[in-house]
Amino acid sequence: MEKELTGESEFESQQSHGESSLAQPSIEDPADNGKVGAADNGDDDICDDAIAVAAAAASSADGVGSQELGNYLQSYMGRRAAAAEATEPGSLNVYEELRQKEQDLLLAAELGRALLCSNAQLKEEAELLRAEFEARLAASEREKADLRGKMDAAEQDWDAQLRDLQAETRALREELRRQQVARSELLAANERLLEDCRQSAARVESLQSELRARRAEAQDRLAAVSAEVDELRAERADMERRLGRAGAELDALAAVGEEQRARLEARLAELTDTAADLRERLAASLASQRRQQMELAEEQLYQQQQQQQQQQSMITSPSTPSSSSHLLFLSASGGAAISSFATAGTPTGAAGRFGFDSGLAGDCLGESLFSELAGFGASAARMDGLYDEDIEEDEADAPVAASAAAPAASGEAETRSEEFFEEDGVGRRWDRQGVESLNRLIENLQTELQLKNQQLEEQSCELRQTKSELSFQQRQTEALLANESAMKRDQKDAAEKRICLESQLSRMKAEVERLNSELNIGGCSREN
């Protein structure tokens, strides 16, 4: 009887615990609002199971109904275990597990209701049994004395069993508390791992997006760098071709310049020799002309001396005309010749020398004539008178004689001087024009050489600039290749980091699956 009361108290405590669990609010996942329709079928199945359990509990007025209820519970737990084994580990999330737990609690509530119903029936039966017991109490009182001894022994046994059961209950409660603490710890660890898993997944996603962006950027940069490298290579090949052509042109121009320089030097030497020859010929022609002029002047001087001798002989003879008239004639003819010779366009030096020599000859002739007249014993007064008379007599004849003799002498002198100076002018003009043409040719050749040298210097500067550009482009190409290798290394490092993160994520998933399996195993063991 005490055992039945103890069982009823334990059942009532379990029932109150089930009602308190039913009174707790259910945890719903906001993300699973769209799954209510899918969960209604499961709730209907649970309600059907609960109705079946209640019917079984209602029919459990005797031991046969309780046995059917135990069999049904065992079959239900078997189906739950089969469904848990059918589901893949780690495929359910926490909210689905909580929903399953809530479904289990609902089922437990229905079972509690069914058990309460059965408990009420049992209480009624207990009342009936108590009435029957009271009816039989009188009969049992008679057996009380006999059974008291047995009762004491049974009570002692009951007390011992009760103490054992209470100790076992305390141990089980302690074990339950430890299991609950471990379950809460496992749930917290599971939450932490899930949070870490979500963070790792977000981090992996961000790293993957960053890797994709950097890969696209690297591919774009690689394509741009490849295009730029191809362009630089093409420019380099073009520059090398241009450099080769420029070098060939430079060599050809250098050869042409050397050839032209040699030709110009030979031409310059030839022109120098020609100019020296022309100068020698000019000097020889000038010397011959001077000799001819001197010979002509000497011949004229000789003729004048002959004329003076004739005049002197005429003066000495009594039949000769007066000396003054002859002197006037000689002076007039000599002056006309000198003036005509001086105005004919002769060189200044020759005309001056000839005029000076003629004047000197005239002076000497006059002095000799006067000295001869004085030697014949003529007095100065007589000579003056004769001179005056001759002057008066010849004043009318002198212009006629001078005009008759001067044109002949002046014409001859003019013709000779014109012939000489025409030849001299032609020679000088030819010499001057040749020298000027040679100078102009030399200047043209020098300017052409300077232009060629300037062109060669400009081409050399262009070649140096082209070489510097080629070296700069080569350095740029090397820098681009270095950047490309660095980008490839970065891509390799990013791929390694991605592999490492994926391995960490897989390990964390395996840990979460292991914890879920442990939780499922612990729940199944507690349910069993």
TrEMBL record:
Residues 299-326, 398-412 have a biased composition (Low complexity). InterPro entries: Spindly/BICDR_Dynein_Adapter. Residues 413-426 have a biased composition (Basic and acidic residues). Keywords: Coiled coil. Residues 435-518 form a coiled coil. It comes from the Eukaryota. Residues 1-42, 297-326, 395-426 are annotated as: Disordered. Transmembrane segments: none annotated. Residues 12-24 have a biased composition (Polar residues). This is Uncharacterized protein. It comes from Macrostomum lignano.
